[in-house]
Structures are given as C-alpha cells and as structure tokens.
C-alpha cells in the first residue's frame, strides 16, 4: 500500500510539473506581448494625467506583481486606466500637490478593500451579457480607430486614450483625418511589415514558439535604424519614451510619499471616494469581459478582485504611483496572446521593472507604429464580424442593447457608454418579464368558452400592469379560471387586482373562478446558491 501511495504522490507531482510547464510555455510569450502593449499605455496615461512618467510605469509594475499575485483572476491585467485620467488630472490640480493626491489614492485603496469585504463585487453578476459583449466589440473598434494615427506616424493625442473627445481638443474622427494629412511613410512601412508578421507568423507552427509581437518589435527597431538619415526617418515622438535612470540614487529619488497631514482635508476624501467608485466599476466591467473571452470559461472572484485592487492602489499611493484598475485592453491582449494563468500578468510586471532599470535605452528605440500594429490585431479580434452575426441570431432583445452599447462607448467613454447600454438592456429585460407573468389558454366547456389564465411561478409587481390590462380586456359573458396552482409567490398588488376583478366581474356577466390563489403569500426564501469563492 505504501508503494502505491508513493507512486500516486509521484504521479501527482509529475502531473503538476507538466501543467506548470505547459502553462509557462504560453504565459511567458503572452507576458512579453502584454509588456510591449502596457509600456506605451502606462507612459501615455501618466502624461495625460499630469503625473510624472515614472508614476505610470510604477503603476504598471505594481499592477502586474502585487495585484497579479493577490487577484483570483487568471487572465486580467491591472495598470493605470485611461478612464481615470480626467479624475487624476482634476484631483492633482484641485488638491494642489501630487503628494496630497497620493493621500487620496491610499484612502481610495482602503475604500476598495471595504467594498470587497462587504461583497460589493457581486454587482458584476447583474451586467447583461449583451452589454458586456457590446463593450468588448466597442473596445475593439476604439483600438482600431485610435491606433490608426499611431500606425501612420502622427497622433497628438496620448497613447491609450479611449474617449471620443480628446484632450488635444479633437475627437476620434478628426484625429484620423489629421493623421491622413501628416502621414510618415517610414511609420506606414513599419506598420505594414508588423501586421504581416502578426497575421502570417503564427501559421508557421514550428517557428511560432517565438511570439510574433517580439519579431514585430525587432523588425520595427531594425527598420527604424535603416530609415535613419533618409526621407523615411522617424521623429523622436514616434518612439517609446521611457524615463532614463542612471543610478540607484536617481531611481529612488523618483519615488514620492503621500502627505498624511492632509488626511483631514475634505477634498481628499471626496477625491478618494470618486477614484474608488470609478476604479471599482471599471475593474468589475473588465473582469466580466475577460471571463467572456477566456477560452477555458473560468469565473473570476469579483470581491477578491476588489481586495487585490485596493491593496494595489494603497501600495501605488505609498510609492508615488497612479490609480489602477483591471484594464480590458491589456487583458484582452493577454487572452489573445494565449495566456493561461496569472503568471503572465506577474511576469509582465517584472519585465516593466527590468525595462526601467536595465534597458531603457533599448526600449526607447521601439517605434510606436509597430506597437500600434499589435493593438490593431487585438482590436480586430475583439470586434470580429462573427460576433455581430452571433448577436443577431440571439434576437433583437440581445442585438439592440449590444449595438447601442457599441455606439455609446465609441461616442462617449467606457462608463457612460456601458451605462447607456445597461439602461437599454434593462428595458428589454423588463419587457420580457412583463410579457411572461401567465399563460393564456382558451378552452371549450360544452358550448361555452372558458378562458384559463395560469399564473407563473413568481408573479412580481412588475407584472401588475400586464395582468390588469389582460383582465380588463376579457369579453363580457366569459367564464374565467385564474389558476395559481403553480405559483410560489404572487405580489400583494397583483393579488389585490385579481380579487377586485373577481368581486366586480359579475357586472359584465363574467364568472371568475380562482384555483389555488391564496389570500396572502410569504416572500420566498433565496434560492439555494452554488458555492461562489466571492
């Protein structure tokens, strides 16, 4: 028996090593992709937020290592979010000092931990599927439109902006128009070559062990060097610009600490609450979206994610970083690159740290146009035509909220667009609910018509109007049977309508028979729930 147990233990150990090795073969290449995507986005969001560039990279490092370790999600990636740039910029300006803003960020992290403890993350269970699918498609379309100017060599807007209105006083469409007028053909060639690698390299199975995005970056660096001194040369602003750190003393001087003396400042608390609410909503939306595109269809624990994000924001505030959320662009790039576990997000954070400390000069030779090609492919996969066909076949109640969400997100921003999509989605949910409170059946009893109305298992206040309209429209002289035998609960307002109708129906010559309709129903207990790690 001991030999068998030993063999079993050895077998389990080998199995664990096998899966770890198999996952790492996917996670390490994916982490390279996420690192390449995250680096310019971290810098761009820091620039747009009015914060030091170092703060953006630091936030990406913390999001990868700290949040990645604590999170229960296997595929989401945390970092500075474009949706918070206006809040951060206004917060730094109104509070008067970056250190005061950091105090607000630490408090925001504490608020998020409280939200996780009280299980506020369960709100994610109420996002309609059609709205989440629409958000994903909208992000794909935004990536294509926003990355096009970078791909052709000109964009005055910051890298990573997702809003329709831009801080350079233009919008998504006018930004594309301006890009056409200022094309850099060197950047265009790099983008085309990069897209060719992204499309065709994965088809060579034996060579695909080297990730296509890594080849894209190497090709971009090589072409930019070859174009140097010619008419195709790239400008300085068309490259990644990571801060150069020349010594350990200079590195540690970049960190900043919160001003704890401002904890009594009312404006600090208001800013903290705003960051906590917006960051938590963006995180929950991103988490739900990532679970949708996870090929293994795992469900991420939302409350644990709020705890992880809260811890990440506290660490970020203590060290001089920016607010962070789970971000859909980096997360979707992670999924599309083939990641399987959270190790991809953690390793991408390590890569950001190494890039900042060891190879900043090399990183600054990467053209933005080749990174734009990677994001263009990510956008194409998110907004694929097959998704639109699938949602159309689901029916108008799914397709209309899906399309409305896409248009609203593209024309406004993520939170406003999803909010509009939610309103339309809820309308269709209520509409469906209102139409299904009962089953209407016409029978014959000899020569007399009998109308049988069988009530649903649960009849809520929302069904009140539909039942009242049905009862008042029944023909005179009819015989009506209202059957509640299958109902576990009928709302008191609906019961009142039914009993009042029976009492007054004789004036129209209508005979009403109630079958197992009680005078009162107790509110049903919550249905037994499957264990959820939230």
UniProtKB/TrEMBL annotation:
It is a multi-pass membrane protein. Residues 24-401 form the SLC26A/SulP transporter domain. It comes from the Bacteria. InterPro entries: SLC26A/SulP_dom, SLC26A/SulP_fam. GO terms for biological process: transmembrane transport. Signal peptide: none annotated. GO terms for cellular component: membrane. Keywords: Membrane, Transmembrane, Transmembrane helix. It is found in: Membrane. The chain crosses the membrane at residues 32-55, 61-89, 101-120, 126-145, 183-202, 214-235, 268-287, 307-329, 350-379, 399-430. Its main location: membrane. This is Sulfate permease, SulP family. It comes from Mucilaginibacter gossypiicola.
